Request: fold
Amino acid sequence: MVKPPPSSKLSRGTVVGKALLKIGAAHGKGLVKRTLGSRSESNAHAEQTHEQIADIIFDALGELKGVSVKIAQQVALGMPFLSPVYLERIARSFNSIPPLNKALVRKIVKQELGRYPNELFEKFESDAFAAASLGQVHKALYKGDEVAVKMQYPGIRQSIGSDMSLIHFAIKRFAKGQNVDHIVSEIEGRLYEEIDYALEAENCTFFGSHRHNDAIVIPTVYGELSTEKILVTSLLRGLSFEEYLATDPAQEEKDAYAQLLFDSFFYTLYKHRRIHADPNPGNFLFMEGGKLGLIDFGCVKQVEDAFLEKYNRLHIDLVENRHDGVVIPQYIDLNMIARSDEASMEQFYTEVIKPLDTLYKEPLIGESYDFGTNSDFSKRGFEMIFKVQQKQFHSVHRLNEQFLFLNRTLLGYYAIFEKMGARIETGYVKGLMRDFKGGKDGK
Amino acid sequence: MKISQSAKEKTRINILGAAVDLIIQKGFENASLREMAKAAGVSNPTIYNYFPSKEKLLYAYIELKHQEAREALEAIDGFETFTLREQLQTLVETELELYLEDREFIVQIADMVFRSSGLRVDTLYATNELFVRTVDEMLSIAIEAGEIKEPPFREQLPRLFWDYYIMVVAYWIKDESEAFENTTQFIDHSMGVIEALLHSDILSRVSDLGMFFFKTHLLSSIQKFTTQKEKLGVIKCKLGEVLHG
Reply:
């Protein structure tokens, strides 16, 4: 049986409170050991204390479930230079969100749409067929059409606030007094976006009417059946990523799918300033006739014109292998390098930024890139990130969020192409990059 | 002229609806049966015929909601595939759903029960027969289907569930959260506890503990205070019957 998450204010408060007490204790011990230990030992102790704190925080998060899992994910995404110990624990805390039972499903549909599922739909499956962002998805039949009904756990909005207080405390602890409010409020904002199904409906409709290729299929939103807490769309039928790969598809077909995703990503970015920023294989459906279904628009990122112009220029310079003197000022301008003395800015560039951007730009340099022959791409990526983390412990410098988001998403796509062993052509994308004029281009 | 059963039922529901609206407007104390009759479009003798007092009307309302809830449950496709917990939870949620449009009225009743003592809780017990029977049936089916083992105090559980349900209503009345989401969560979590209790053997362990104390300590103190041999024999005999069936 899945334990429902504690969620009355009191019980959440208790879990949070207990965790805070325990963190206090772990830090105290660490301090004593550090004072007594020799210099060489002190690092090991610091690491141990981190591990204990990570354990305590994520034990508490595990108990809170649901929202906290999402928060943990967001922390991992938003802070690439967080100590690997924390990230490891975050990865382990990816557990399931408590399911809504039949009684609750009925209640939510009635509350949001005014009628019970059996009155509203010709058929409604009360067992969910998929998990969604902080909720679940049910199949139903509406006016003869197969639809997907996505709904969320009641009260999730309120619990975000109380869970964030724990996160705030935890992040502050390891940031050692540095200001982390921006990180916390960014995470909070993203979570609120993710549970706002009205926003998701808008995004879904937007992407539906701004496709770069007819082979991309986007579900139709049933506006009359959609609210902030419930979202009804047409049901797409296709194979999941794993199922698709299991059919041992032809190389050309895999290449075509990868090309579609790759081109589509840059098309929506440069032409419409929006990206589907959740390249989780679970969000793609491999449909008949080489069509690709895109689902789940809970994580869509809009980028600003001013940022995109800078990003575009930098990206082109990187792909063209321009020298550091051209690149570094752009990174500073983009707020990816904190302003300080020249030497430390250059050091940050060579030790942190450069190893990463070398990786990001690799597939874009030639006319094509074969992830089949470069099947160690993400392995190299992870090793690189790990190395960077080793050097750059606990940096809370406010990095450019849009920049991080774009690169992270791109890396997610590359990881998928790698699993497919696909080969992509870069011509179309480079054309988009070079033709981009900034300002109102494409609007 | 003989009035058919269904016509009678219709009049009854009609009067109840008018009465509830009037009570919401004027308050329970200030709304008279006479005015209710007028609002429902029936004569004074007729309303007295159906409801001799305002209290009777109130009980009838609660009973009517139990009946409607039961009908609503019976209309759910595949209700038999719901787990015991889902069935019980749906019952509670459905009752609240039915109360929703008359919330002001329920608030007044609750006020009379919990605050002004204008109404005694035990008088409400008379109205819970259908609710208790519904819960009892759900329990029996779950036991028969092997979903749960026969719990101790089996006979008392449906009535206890009614008490729990009154607690939920009391919580709901005080709930100020958006769309009563707190109540939804309160129900979900408390039902989780009830489910866990029914699926564990905690209830039977507690009953074992109680029995141990009773046999070992309570029984010996009874022995001390009883001097007449005969009486003791009778008590022991009775207890033996109770304990060993």
Remarks:
- Residues 1-42, 90-96 of chain A have pLDDT under 50 and may be disordered.
